[in-house]
Amino acid sequence: MPNLEHPAYPSATLLHLESLVPCRESQVSMLLSIFGERQQFSFPSIFIYGHTSSGKTYVMQTLLNTLQLPHVFVNCVEYFTSRLLLEEILIQLQSCSSETKQTSHVPCDTFNDFVRLFKQAVASRELQDQTLYIVLDRAEQLREMEANILPAFLRLQELTDRNVTVVLLSEIVWELFRPNTGCFEPFTLYFPDYSIGHLQKILSQNHPPEYSVDFYAAYINILLGVFYMVCRDLKELQHLAALNFSKYCEPVVRGEASERDTRKLWKNIEPHLKKAMQTVYLREISSSQWERLQCDDREPGQLKGLSAHTHVELPYYSKFLLIAAYLASYNPVRTDKRFFLKHHGKIRKTNFMKKHEKTSNHLLGPKPFPLDRLLAILYSIVDNRVAPTANIFSQISSLVTLQLLSMVDHNDQLGGPRYKCTVSLDFIRAIAR
């Protein structure tokens, strides 16, 4: 692991900074070399991009706060218009200057007004003697504002003739930002995703003091083995690690296993991790509610918890549509007459129980079905008569939007749309109740 080195900052400060940004030492070293010393002019604009939860915002905030560099940090989602954005920058600039104690609201309608007011705000001696950094988080929102906002921020150092650097943080690449008319090209820096080794190292740093480091590292290894393929978000993994650690420790607390007995610990935590897998990113209940549900032993043998699938609220006919879609996906076409017609005649069982049909259809997955079959099953399972109105078709589209149904696209089909049911049997049982 390379150590951070810079002649302008004490080694103790850089060592502390290095401990705060694990697995991002190369990016921080690059930023330090671009920033230079406090009084030196830095690059006019820097564009930092990477996927969600790759450490862009955290690294910039930690770097500027640890080195105590004057900066303005604005989230473009919160200040979604140019006027709100420019005024917020000026308000934070007033608080940075020790000579200007008041933080009065100054109207700023155009970027020309912003340049004039910006020069007045940085007139203090402290801000003139060192580089000022303006960090715009979620900078992709700038593309929704006036056409001159983004090019003007990229040339803010030239327009104001002040020592200022604009840092843009975004999840998309610079090629999607560049205007058709051209603009000043910023210095681009990429933050790659955390690897599984990086996540293991970062998550293991938060171990509780009452347990050993190796014990918590083994727990993180189990957690990543379950969730890494479906979740790379560091914040979500930290939430999951804190939420399920108490359940992992239960055998050790009860004295049934030692910290090295990983087999018993894994058997105890496995069903709870599988349940948490269904609710990744949803945050449908709070941490305290989850803990109360896991501690409630009124229903032994059944894993307790909430799932978005079993608590979703749907319109009346959407529930029947979903049940009909599930029946159409998992039942063969030739069984429709037997299951959904009252007077279907005699059907010999030997015709249905062929060798290749003894395998459960749930193991084979859902099969596509046409729209007319879905509606036919719907009419047979609903007690009252249902007219094929636009309301029914709009509810089918809503189920596709909610990803409870998926549309199967085949360019060579002329007979209409085909669908698949994407929900589980537990979901359908909950809806059918």
From TrEMBL:
Q: Where is the Origin recognition complex subunit 5 C-terminal domain?
A: 314-433
A Pfam family (short name) is: ORC5_C
Keywords, sorted A to Z:
ATP-binding, DNA replication, Nucleotide-binding, Nucleus
What residue stretches are annotated with the Orc1-like AAA ATPase domain?
Answer: 21-167
Give the GO cellular component terms, alphabetically: nuclear origin of replication recognition complex
Q: What coarse category fits the chief subcellular location reported for this protein?
A: nucleus
Name where it's found.
Answer: Nucleus
Query: Where does the ORC5 lid domain start and stop, copy by copy?
Result: 216-283
**Which GO molecular function terms does the record list?**
ATP binding; DNA replication origin binding
> Which InterPro entries is this protein grouped with?
AAA_16, ORC5, ORC5_C, ORC5_lid, P-loop_NTPase
Q: Name one GO biological process term.
A: DNA replication initiation
Q: Describe the protein's quaternary organization and the partners it interacts with.
A: Component of ORC, a complex composed of at least 6 subunits: ORC1, ORC2, ORC3, ORC4, ORC5 and ORC6. ORC is regulated in a cell-cycle dependent manner. It is sequentially assembled at the exit from anaphase of mitosis and disassembled as cells enter S phase.
The protein's role, per its UniProt record: Component of the origin recognition complex (ORC) that binds origins of replication. DNA-binding is ATP-dependent. The specific DNA sequences that define origins of replication have not been identified yet. ORC is required to assemble the pre-replication complex necessary to initiate DNA replication.
- Family stated for the protein in its record: Belongs to the ORC5 family.
Its recorded name reads Origin recognition complex subunit 5
- State the species of origin: Ciconia maguari
Q: Gene encoding this chain?
A: Orc5
